[in-house]
Amino acid sequence: MPATQFDVAQRAGVSQRTVSNVVNGVASVGPAVRERVLDAIRELDYRPSLAARGLRVGRSGLLQLIVPELDVPYFAELARHVVASAEERGYALLVRQTLGSPDRERLTLDDSAGEYVEGTILSAVGPVDELLAGRAARTPVVLIGESTGRGLVDHIGIDDEAAAFAATQHLLATGRRRVAFVGADPASSLRMAALRRAGYGRALEAAGLVVDERLVIRTASYHRRDGAEAMAGLLDLDDPPDAVFAATDLLALGVLHEANRRGLAVPDRLAVMGFDGLEEGAYSSPTLSTVAPDKPAIARASVAALLDRLGALEEGGVPRPPVDVPVPFTLALRGSTAR
């Protein structure tokens, strides 16, 4: 028999009203009690009824996640975790893609302010300050990845610059000295690319090295073919790099493909480091070293922040100021940077 709200309350040692408040994102529940209830929900595999909740509180129980491209594995993996986190809290999730178009981002946000979607988790590609101005007031928005820098909405993400610094430091620690960066953004609209480029440059400077701009390769997008094309150009230099730090794992996989095609041994003659922690990288040849953001933590924190906003709206209280929630990352060191 499926677990009931009563079962969860008994397991957590709280009232059914408290369980309901946690499921509905009411902000008045303390963190320790909230976590105890969520643990009980997980243990009992409790699934609240969206239809019943909608009739009871007049809400749809529907959130949405907006990402650039669902065929990019990072966003597919992230979406899986956000779906799980939303369902754990009794919400359904609508997943939408913008195909990397700032215009589609604006249109998608504008049509999300209707009666069905209660709140939005957004991974943006366009200038986020302009995108969110005025729109965040209509329906709660939580930003993942990109940061507005102006505190318009809650932001969940890793420190891209610190992660890139750590990745480049690792390459230097293996004895490499000509480290290329693949994935600079030509239009400078993606703050992510700029931050990762900055972390790369700072690590080189900390090691007493000068950034060789010939090794900083701009790409039109962040797919495997872009990485392969960038690597082809780097290998045609008179003094090619002995290491590549790619801004995404897909770029890094393209770099590996071109290196293998040219007969360049990785990691003996070239070290390759990616960024995103994709599962695919654990099965490439050689396996790909990468910066691995804690995607489950990003999902949990973004859903929690959104429901906290919704709970405050339901109670009619004054919304808290936007917060920036840092999420950890690790370096998954594998075959492509072994020494």
**CATH class call of the largest domain:** Alpha Beta
What's the SSE pattern? Answer: HHHHEHEHEHEEHEHEHEHEEHEE
Task: Tell me, rounded to a whole number, the average pLDDT.
Answer: 87
Spans where pLDDT lies below 50 across 5 or more residues = none
The helix count comes to: 12
Q: Name the CATH homologous superfamily of the largest domain.
A: Response regulator
Number of strands: 12
CATH architectural group of the largest domain:
3-Layer(aba) Sandwich
Count up the domains: 3
How much helix, percentage-wise, in residues? 40-55%
Main sheet characteristics: 6 strands, parallel
Percent of residues in β-strands: 15-25%
What is the CA-atom radius of gyration, in angstroms? Answer: 22 Å
Sheet with the most strands: spatial strand order: 2-1-3-4-5-11
The rounded distance between the terminal residues' Cα atoms is 55 Å
- Dominant shape: elongated
| SS content category | alpha/beta
CATH topology label of the largest domain: Rossmann fold
Organism: Labedella gwakjiensis
InterPro entries: HTH_LacI, LacI/GalR-like_sensor, Lambda_DNA-bd_dom_sf, Peripla_BP_I
GO molecular function: DNA-binding transcription factor activity; transcription cis-regulatory region binding
Pfam families: LacI, Peripla_BP_3
Task: Set down the secondary structure blueprint.
Blueprint: H1 5-12, H2 16-23, H3 31-44, H4 50-57, E1 62-67, H5 73-88, E2 92-97, H6 102-110, E3 117-122, H7 128-132, E4 141-144, E5 154-157, H8 160-173, E6 179-184, H9 191-206, E7 216-218, H10 224-235, E8 243-246, H11 249-261, E9 271-275, E10 289-293, H12 295-315, E11 324-326, E12 329-332
Parallel strand pairs: 1-2, 1-3, 3-4, 4-5, 5-11, 6-7, 6-8, 8-9, 9-10
Antiparallel strand pairs: 10-12
Helix pairs in contact: 1-2, 1-3, 5-12, 8-9, 10-11
